[in-house]
Amino acid sequence: MEPVGILLLIVAFFLIIVLFRSIKIVPQQWNYIIERLGRYRRTLEPGPRLLVPFVDSVRAKVDLRERVVNFPPQPVITADNLGVQIDTVLYYIITQPTAAVYNIDDYLAGVEQLTTTTLRNVVGSLDLEKTLTSREEINARLAAELDKATDKWGLKVTRVELRSIEPPLSIRDAMEKQMRAERDRRAAILNAEGTKRSSILMAEGEQQSAVLRAKGERDAAVLRADGEAKAIQTVFAAIHKAKPTDRLLTYQYLQTLPTIAQGTANKVWVVPAELTKALGGIGNAFGGADKSGPSEEEEVEVDTSALELDDSALQALEAAQQAAREVQDIGEGKDRGELPPAPA
């Protein structure tokens, strides 16, 4: 091969290398830090860019997207001298690429150490219960402190999250026992409230049932009394319309007397004073002014005190009924003009 051809090949290869080193394509959301002869020259934005070959060089490639860093669990002592393990997650973005490259050697290591110290300061002022229940407050305080400290590094901490808080095993056992006791207490309260509500409902139901039964009995009694009153009024109206005589009333009275003496336990039968008056009324009704009977102005002197007849109560009742029938027969004889036989 001729020397001229070899020279041309070398020149072509050199030009390709120069062209390759002169053109840089920067991706979206990236910045390239360019140095010229070891000194910061400029920052390349996304897109195709030209460099001076063998003079300009890329110092660093900076990702401008939001990044997430998960730090390992850190031992932290709370205000009540209890050690806990806290796992944190940090979200940040790079706002000044040149500051992130030139102001700190390794900004990720710096952020990790700064997060650890800030977390210990924040949690160290809180007790364990407050630490477990105040994650939002801790996250806000950490984000504010880290954002203030990392501003000179060209970083902006958007948020910090406490992913887990692990207390000691003995504390976890005590917390579980407390939680079970609290749940048992709530269950007992709910059970008691349910029993109370059930008793109240049962009592109210019994009360309403008793009230309804009482109202029903009252209405039934009123209806029965109303019916009996109407029946009495009907009977009274019928009797008044029929215009009964004294003989009929006296006879009905004598027919009612056997009912008084009914019953196997009756040992003493009291002869009422109205019995002699009834007999006298029958005589007056049928005999007029007969001398054998007393006059209307005279009073029949009969001992109306209680007569102890013992076992002869029914016999006395039958005698009274027989006397009433005889008086009736005498009255009927007088109406026909017949006179009763003279007494011996």
Write the layout of secondary structure elements.
Layout: H1 3-22, E1 23-26, E2 30-36, E3 39-44, E4 47-50, E5 56-63, E6 67-70, E7 74-77, E8 83-94, H2 97-102, H3 107-124, H4 128-133, H5 135-149, E9 155-166, H6 169-242, H7 246-260, H8 274-287, H9 313-335
Antiparallel strand pairs: 1-4, 2-3, 2-5, 6-8, 7-8, 8-9
Helix pairs in contact: 3-5, 7-8, 7-9, 8-9
Folded structure, characterized:
This is Regulator of protease activity HflC, stomatin/prohibitin superfamily. One of its GO terms (molecular function) is peptidase activity. Residues 285-305, 320-344 are annotated as: Disordered. By secondary structure, this protein is of the alpha+beta class. The radius of gyration is 64 Å and the shape is rod-shaped. The strands form three sheets. Strands 6, 7, 8 and 9 form a four-stranded antiparallel beta sheet that branches. It has nine helices and nine strands. The longest helix is centred in the middle third of the chain and has 74 residues, at 169-242. 56% of the residues lie in helices and 18% in strands. Among the domains are: 20-63, no CATH class; 67-166, Band 7 domain (Tetrahydropterin Synthase, Chain A, 2-Layer Sandwich); 246-335, no CATH class. A hairpin with a 2-residue loop joins strand 2 and strand 3 (39-44).
